[in-house]
Amino acid sequence: MAPSKKTCTVLMVDVSSPTMTPHLGWVGDSLSRVVQNRILHAKADEFALVTCGARETLNDVHTEGIENAAAACEQDYEEEYLNISVDVAMACACAETAGVVARLHTFAGDGAVADYLDALTVASDVLVRHERGGCFSRRVLIVTDLQTPCPIDHDFLNSIAAGMRGASVQLVVAVVDGETEETETKNANREMFQNLCDSLNVLSDGVTPVPFSSRSSVANARDVFNHHSVKQTRPTTTFRGDLQLTPWMNIKVWGYKKISEAKPPAMKLFDSSADDTHGDGPMVTRERTFTSYADPDNPKDVPPEMMLSAYPYGTYRENCKPVDVSPWMCSTAV
């Protein structure tokens, strides 16, 4: 049985680092497969795309800062949250979102200045602002090679952790390990994200751990993509009772559980799960087209309401020529 809790995910990708640009192609393909997997198995799950280090600035936090400064008549206001773009707004998994994510290599920032903490603030703001009915979980998936220099403000980092913990936001950092060596910048960014994940893995009391399924982590990008590209079901009991090995030997088996991988839905004319009003079941249909070849040089599609079950007949059929049977008839002598 698949979990009924829906997930809203912000795909935050670092496009600023020159060492990250060669990886944007396969990273976009992998993230696109994640979205396509949800189209098949959990179409109600929602995704948004945020690029860190983009060529332009497009986010609500930056816009509101300028508007508030203008309303307060601040002449020396310095713009914040620059080079962060919300390229895809939060919406249910669809082919359009998968297509934009697949073109991630076109969003390369060409060395634009980026800040992980500012981008994480924008991603969290997208999740918090998004109004969604029912029970759902929030997740931020960061894809980076950790090579972008980022000033670490511990007070700002603690405020981000408090806000994400209050909104129950899960953080997953997918690290792209290329051929670059370990640098001081990479080690500092890894330590920063690991400390942030450790802060999110406990509740506000600082002692109680969060559920395992909601734990934040820093992991290899390929492992993260493989995990999110395959939808797994909950553990199910496959056997319970006496296991008879021979007529004289029985073993008491209480229960055996396994994780089953969900397969794509069957392509049949009607899928009973499509009636699910909560959006759990995928819509599976098969289209049929009927073509009339009355005129072989100009075939035409026939709509369903115009179709009849009948044998071909008409002037376009070649008529049989009558056969003269008089030579076969025997003449009677008088």
Which parts are unreliable, with pLDDT below 50 for 5 consecutive residues or more? none
Major sheet attributes: 6 strands, mixed
Strand-residue proportion: 15-25%
Strand order of the largest sheet: 3-2-1-4-5-6
Number of extended strands: 10
CATH topology of the domain at 6-229: Rossmann fold
* CATH homologous superfamily designation of the domain at 6-229: von Willebrand factor, type A domain
CATH class of the domain at 6-229, named Alpha Beta
Any idea what the radius of gyration is? 31 Å
Percent helix range: 25-40%
Q: Provide the succession of SSEs.
A: EHEHEHHEHEHEHEEEE
Q: Span from first to last CA? A: 95 Å
Could you say what the CATH architecture of the domain at 6-229 is?
3-Layer(aba) Sandwich
Average pLDDT, all residues: 80
Structural class: alpha/beta
Shape: extended
What is the overall number of helices?
7
What does this structure look like?
The protein has 334 residues and is α/β, with parallel strands linked by helices. The chain has a domain at 6-229: Rossmann fold (3-Layer(aba) Sandwich). Helix content is 27%, strand content 22%. It is built from 7 helices and 10 strands. The chain has helices spanning 24-41, 60-71, 95-102, 116-129, 154-166, 184-200, 221-229, and strands at 6-14, 46-52, 84-92, 136-144, 169-175, 217-220, 236-246, 249-258, 290-292, 300-302. The strands form 3 sheets. The chain has a 6-stranded mixed β-sheet with strand order 3-2-1-4-5-6, sandwiched between helices. Helix 1 runs antiparallel to helix 3 (95-102), helix 1 (24-41) packs parallel to helix 7 (221-229) and helix 4 packs parallel to helix 5. It is extended and about 120 Å long.
